[in-house]
Amino acid sequence: MHQSPDPELLSLNTATVREKWSLRQMIEGCARHGIRGISPWRDKLAELGAKEAAKMMRSHGLTVTGLCRGGMFPATDRRGRQAAIEDNLRAIEDAAILEARCLVLVVGGIPPGSKDIAGAREQVRDGIGAVLDHARACGVPLAIEALHPMYAADRACVNTLAQANDLCNELGEGLGLAVDVYHVWWDPRLKAEIERAGDKRLLAFHICDWLVPTGDLLLDRGMMGDGVIDIPLIRSWVEAAGYRGFHEVEIFSANNWWRRDPDEVLAICRERHQSCC
Ligand code: ZN
Fold first, then answer.
1. Sign of the Cα pseudo-torsion (114, 120, 126, 129, in order)
2. Which residues surround ligand 1, an ion (CB under 5 A)?
3. Residue 181 C-alpha to ligand 1 middle, in angstroms?
4. What's the 150 CA to ligand 1 centre distance in angstroms?
5. How confident is the model over 229-270, as pLDDT tens digits?
6. Domain boundaries, the chain
7. DSSP 4
């Protein structure tokens, strides 16, 4: 029997209730349900603007466990790559205003028309390298989120924690990892790469579950406990490596959780965090 996690460490990634609630409703909802962390996506952040959102989150006692997201570095030409860099610099500034624990990077896939995944990975390295100094100056750690390989073409060509750790080795201080159980649970090297990352690099821990069968590549994530991921085991690994941060629920679910009353969703998140994480 595992020990239930500290309920104070639950965080809401706004993707989980994005269809029915505004950012304002999400902030108030977290406070109402005793959820102490929040991780907004930038489309929701735009509703209030970073300054207003920061003020409101603070006044509701919320810690910003991450800002989602920067990244998407690879592009067909120089202009496209430069536009991505500028967008990331703006995201870093918003993350600084929010005092976010990290800016999550979904690094991007292969540019349209290309078959060069190795080249895309070089563009990712160069893109992160181009914004890292600014992130350091702003005090915003960048968290590379390795995505499941099924997203390598269109969302992220960094697909394992080993790749993400290698990038951290290469680029140095100010860079770390977001460990999302949905993306990495299958990896035979998961435990070893979490140990390798250590507490300095472990910046975020995202939770949900892998449903069998999965009906949609993007929008059919499960609630913790409804799938095949041993979340308590993975949590024990990140904690053994020294991670003491939040557990952020991030569920993309077009046909189930997004259709439900968000107050019901948050209540179930709290309960499953205790019973299944
Ligand atoms: Zn995630």
1. positive
2. 180, 206, 250
3. 8
4. 14
5. 999 999 999 999 999 999 999 999 999 999 999 999 999 999
6. 7-276
7. P
Classify each residue of 113-147 as buried b or exposed e, where b means 16 or more C-beta atoms within 10 Å of its C-beta. eeeeeeebbebbbebbbbbbebbbebebbbbbbbb
The CATH number, out of the four listed (3.40.50.720, 1.10.3720.10, 3.40.50.10260, 3.20.20.150), of the domain defined by the range 7-276? 3.20.20.150
Mean pLDDT of the 92-107 span: 98
Kindly give the residue spans of alpha helices, DSSP state H, lying in the chain.
23-32, 42-48, 50-59, 78-98, 117-138, 161-171, 181-184, 190-201, 231-240, 262-276
Q: HEC profile for 108-174?
A: ECCCCCCCCHHHHHHHHHHHHHHHHHHHHHHCCCEEEECCCHHHCCCCECCCCHHHHHHHHHHHCCC
Cα of 172 from ligand 1 centre, angstroms:
22
pLDDT tens per residue, range 191-226: 999 999 999 999 999 999 999 999 999 999 999 999
Give the Å distance between the CA of 206 and the centre of ligand 1.
5
From CA 233, how far away is CA 67, in angstroms rounded? Answer: 26
Q: Cα separation of 266 and 262, whole Å?
A: 6
CA of 145 to the centre of ligand 1 (A): 7
